[in-house]
Input
Amino acid sequence: MEDRSLGIVSRPATLVVVSQDSPVEPPRANSPAALEQMLASASPVWEIAQSEPLTLLALSQSVDGGPLEAIARMDAHLLASSGGSVLGLEDLGGDGGARWSVAIRVPQRENAIILFAEEPQQFADPSHPSAALSDVQSTLGLSTPLESPFVEDFIRLVRLLHAASGELVALVDPALDSVRLRADVQTLFLDAEPLADERALFRTQIVSRGEGAPRWLFTEGMPRVGKPDFEMLEVDPSEERAALTLLEVTAGLFVSRQLPPPETPFDLGVGVTIALVPPREAFAGLAADVAGSARDREGEHAHFSPRVSAVLSAPHKRGAYRQVWTRPIEAIAALQRGEAALALPDGVVRSTAFRARASWSDVAKLRADATRIEPILAQVSITSGTATEHAWVEVRSADARGGSGILMHALREGSRLKGASVEFTLSQVTDWSA
Output
């Protein structure tokens, strides 16, 4: 398992908007209803008039048999999975460099899907990470706006494209410059319990001027779900891992939520208070040689020039003489110390828990190693009354049924203190780290 020991992950993923009246200890929204009302409509600052469409390409070993053959395969998939079929068909011809293209409609989707075929893409260079794709016979693609719920719709579209393509070798997401080989496509999208989550909808980039220079982190792909991309500026190299976690969690949570108003502090869990700031407010004071300044956003060499973006910042401006927005230093530090509780998107919790339980036998083997001195941590769900908390435990014993350990921190409900003994079953495990 990947080391995920940064912070304590908690559920449910509740965002609490914080009043700006008191920067020392701000009062929280006093009810879920008040919070939902505040986030009910998007601020015009973050508004994206029209979502960018999703385009996916399937690289296949099957020879292109034309639109009717592709649609027949898709029909068979729909019939087997939902009892439906393609509802309509409009021939769009071979414009835009496509061999052919058709507009189709499928059950339970408002928007039409453009299905098209391109000339086969070859990857003959043995140094290319996808050199195994050199025998691709056809490239089939689809383009359509994503619909809510976005992760489920993404998975459904991948399955439709996979069915239409015949012998799929790889899935390409051109907007994210992503190539997933067949095995990954199977695990993420095609299995009965697909592991794809909100992170499949975007990617994160890191830019700096040099090895020890401040990092500029940003996402790409969020406009496909009608949301701005997210950024973080002037991240110290020592903070990169925690900052990346914070950025990806924020983007994942707002896939299905409206953004709070600009410059409004809000809690992203326990011990993590941040604000979202328009980029011009955030990078106005950056020197030209710092990654993320105006120099990186303008002209043909721009790294990042979205229509709309939101910068993760500290909850309040800093500075004795000139007040400026800075990165969320306290939140990053709390994550690095393991003293923060991040609220994760539901899809991330689900996929992480599935992977953790599937690989739990590795924990049992590590615990059985008498020479091992490094701790093994497990994240387990603990229910007290009506509240369920996901807490980190130092594992002292582990077997196929679960294990036991010592709490690394007190529970928020106060029912158990740091250092308390905990026994748990495999069904309670949501993550582990070694």
Observations:
- Confidence is low (pLDDT under 50) at residues 1-15, 18-35.
- The chain is about 20% helix and 25% strand.
- The two ends are 8 Å apart (CA to CA).
- Residues 8-40+201-333 form one domain.
